[in-house]
Specification:
The chain is mainly α and 510 residues long. Helices cover 48% and strands 7% of the residues. The protein is built from 21 helices and twelve strands. The chain has helices at residues 39-57, 63-69, 72-85, 90-107, 117-126, 136-155, 186-205, 222-245, 249-254, 288-297, 315-324, 341-352, 357-364, 369-375, 384-389, 402-412, 419-426, 438-446, 459-464, 486-495, 502-509; strands spanning 3-5, 19-24, 29-34, 128-129, 132-133, 260-261, 268-270, 283-285, 330-331, 335-336, 472-473, 479-480. Helix 12 runs antiparallel to helix 13 and helix 17 packs across helix 20 (486-495). The longest helix has 24 residues, at 222-245. The protein is elongated, with a radius of gyration of 40 Å.
Length: 510
């Protein structure tokens, strides 16, 4: 049985370590192992060594024992090699390795089983990249990288249980973006495209000092102006491609003429899997406007491998184009109008035009509909007011209690009714031997239809387009409408035409 002791010279020395004495069943002899400053931890070390030696002596060896002793960097190297074998890009592999290595060094972990969720959460909360705190999305990416590492270790039988099973990602709805984006309206996109074409020539012709400062009178060689014009046209094509296709910056840079099929109906882009973010060979159908622009811009004899855009507008260039067009770049509160915001503009523009959700999701190449409906949607540009105004107004409810109405009408009197209206309305009441129509008339007035309603609208609602046709507001602000059989019920009671109507039954009782 394992014991723990201290050397004589260390017994009174503060911070000295205990020594575990344990029996090696394989060799049949006692061994000493320097342990910890805590006696119980040292005893546990001795017991573990005894159990392992006993299992080996009996031929029941645990392969995880050797893995447990290996340094965590050795495990990480094996993991990265397996990731590389999965045909991942070099950039992805480097980022994965650097993130895991940064956490291992920051938490001072030496063995795989020493990974601890609490320590990692604490480290990620204090981690700064280029002086900035991690965003919620980046933090989740770090956690995802670590959990993929430990999941692989469990599957490869390097640890029995996942040490990071309790490490959780931040919920999507709780994440506040550090660089929010806004969608550009159709008018803003049109202004940007126009300004992009004019700005290169404008910058060359603009006089910046002297008596002619601010005038477009600078002397520029024709070939220089022609080159500036080509730059403006190509930059415009880049923005237009981003708006209509939703391609990301890296995807625009890799887009080649061989990827575009302009002789099909409709024209399309066949993306190569190796250049897309999701590593999928997606097909993008082209809007007629961008298809026509590409046909006009494409050279007659062109190498299919030649990029469509020689350069993608940098953020500095786009900010200058936005400023020249009189468009605000944005801020943290309203969102920024950068190149990636063109994807949000496309998604919002499709939704505002009434395009179906599934079609929008497919064109945006999203596997999760929440990305299309939430992340890439700017609700401020949706035609909510226009769509809301199309809904019919809510009419006033008509009471259904016939007994209460009969009492009310009996108290009002019927001296103002003439005989013609009396005879005509007697046929509509329930106080005859014929079929009762009063309840049907009441339901028609109380429903969402237009039967029997007035032809005029009150002034405020008519201007706004709200309300049900034919309703009128009373001086108190409530809609009023004449209820079917309203006048004749009182008269029937007075003339004594007693039938099955509830008001008639009341008169029988009287």
């Amino acid at each position: 049985m394992a014991t723990a002791y201290k050397r004589t010279k260390d017994r009174r020395r503060k911070g000295s370590k205990w020594i575990a004495r344990w029996f090696n069943a394989e060799l049949g002899e006692w061994k000493d192992k320097t342990g910890h400053t805590d006696k119980e931890a040292t005893l546990e070390l001795g017991r573990r060594l005894e159990r392992e030696s006993a299992r080996r002596a009996e031929g029941v060896d645990d392969p995880m024992d050797d893995q447990r002793k290996r340094l965590i960097h050795d495990h990480l190297a094996d993991f990265i090699e397996q990731v590389k074998a999965g045909n991942r890009t070099e950039a992805y592999v480097n980022q994965l390795e650097s993130r895991i290595t940064r956490v291992i060094q920051g938490t001072a972990v030496k063995r795989l089983h020493e990974l601890d969720s609490t320590k990692i959460n604490r480290f990620l909360s204090t981690l700064r990249i280029k002086g900035r705190k991690l965003s919620g999305i980046t933090r989740n990416e770090y956690i995802g990288s670590l959990k993929s590492f430990t999941k692989w270790a469990v599957e490869d039988r390097r640890v029995q249980n996942d040490p990071l099973a309790s490490l959780k990602r931040i919920e999507r709805k709780a994440i506040k973006p550090t660089h929010p984006r806004r969608a550009l309206s159709v008018d803003e996109v049109a202004k940007l495209l126009d300004a992009t074409v004019r700005r290169p020539e404008h910058e060359l012709l603009l006089i910046r000092r002297g008596k002619d400062k601010g005038k477009l009178k600078a002397k520029v060689r024709p070939e220089t102006l022609a080159r500036a014009k080509r730059i403006g046209q190509e930059r415009r094509l880049g923005y237009l491609l981003a708006v209509w296709t939703g391609l990301r910056r890296s995807e625009l840079a890799e887009l080649a003429w061989g990827d575009i099929e302009l002789d099909t109906m409709p024209a399309r882009i066949q993306l190569r899997a190796e250049v897309t973010k999701s590593r999928r060979a997606d097909t993008l159908l082209l809007h007629p406007q961008i298809a026509e622009e590409l046909i006009a811009y494409k050279p007659e004899q062109v190498d299919p491998a030649l990029p469509v855009l020689s350069t993608v507008p940098s953020m500095k260039v786009m900010k200058a184009d936005l400023k020249f067009a009189g468009i605000d770049y944005g801020n943290q509160a309203t969102g920024y109008a950068d190149l990636h915001a063109m994807r949000k503009s496309l998604s919002t523009m499709m939704a505002a035009a009434g395009m179906s959700q599934r079609a929008r999701q497919a064109h945006m190449r999203h596997t999760d509909p929440r990305l299309t409906e939430v992340t890439y949607m700017d609700e401020t540009l949706l035609p909510i007011a226009t769509e809301l105004a199309k809904l019919p107004g809510i009419p006033n409810a008509v009471p259904d209690d016939e007994l209460a109405e009969a009492i009310q009408f009996r108290a009002t009197g019927t001296d103002d009714l003439d005989s013609d209206s009396t005879s005509a309305n007697i046929q509509q009441t329930g106080c005859t031997s014929g079929h009762s129509e009063a309840s049907d008339g009441t339901a028609a007035q109380a429903g969402w239809g237009e039967q029997g309603q007035d032809e005029q609208l009150s002034e405020p609602f008519d201007k706004q387009g709200f309300g049900t046709k034919g309703q009128r507001l009373s001086p108190s602000g409530n809609r009023r409408s004449k209820k079917a059989g309203e006048e004749i019920r009182t008269l029937d009671i007075h003339v004594g035409n007693v039938g099955d109507h509830p008001s008639c039954r009341l008169m029988k009782a009287d």
